[in-house]
Amino acid sequence: MFQRAEQLLGTDAMKRIGAQRVIIFGVGGVGSWCAEALVRTGVKHLTLVDFDRVDVTNINRQLMATQQTIGQVKVEALRERLLTINPQAEITALCKLFDEESAPTFALDSYDFIIDAIDSLKDKALLIELACQTKAKFFSSMGAALKLDPTRVQVAEFWKVKGDPLARALRNRFKKQQRFPKRKFKCVFSDEPAQQVGEVKGSLVQITAVFGMTLASLVIQNINNS
Predict the structure, then answer these.
(1) Contact 105, 152 (CB under 8 A)
(2) What distance lies between CA 136 and its chain's CA centroid?
(3) Is the pTM for the entire model greater than 0.90?
C-alpha cells in the first residue's frame, strides 16, 4: 500500500517512518488531517489525544466527522477511520484533556515526534514548554480559524512567526511568566488577516486540512532527512 511513497522516499526512509512513535494532541480540524496523512505515509505507531466528541458543527472541517459519527468520541472515531487505511497500524486513542493535572500521564519522553494541535492557550503553552524539554521532535499549529487563503499557510520558527494572533499571545504569555521554551521549534501558521470577529470562530477545511498536512509533511521530511 505504500509503494508510491517508497518510490519517492526510498526503502530505508519507509522503514524509519514505520518505526517512529508519534503523538498528536488535538484531533480537530488540523490534527485529524495530520493523523491521516501520517498513516497514509507509513507511520504505524500513533497516539491520538482529545477529550471531545464529534459534533454536527465539526462536519465542515474534521476528517472523521460525518452524520454517522455525531456523538462518538473523536479519538475513537478517528482511530476506526485510520485502521481502515492500515489495519496493522498501532493506533492508541486517549480520550483525555491535556492540562496541568493530566500532563504527567502522557510520558512525552517515550515519543519520537510530538504534534501540537491544541486550541486552548493555557494548555498549548504547557505542552510547548514540556515538549521542548524532551528529545522528541516537536511541531506546533498556530491559529487556523478565520482564514480563507490556503496559499498563505507557511512554516517558521516560533519566535519568527508573523501575523498570527495565537503565536503573539503565546509569546506574551511566556514573557509575562518568564518561562520560555528550552529550544526552538517550527510552527505552521498563516499570516492572512482574520476575516471576522465574534464569539464563534469560523473555519474552513481548505485551511485546517492544509495546516494538518503541513504538520505531517514536517514529520516525514524530518525522518527522510535523518
Answers:
(1) no
(2) 14
(3) yes
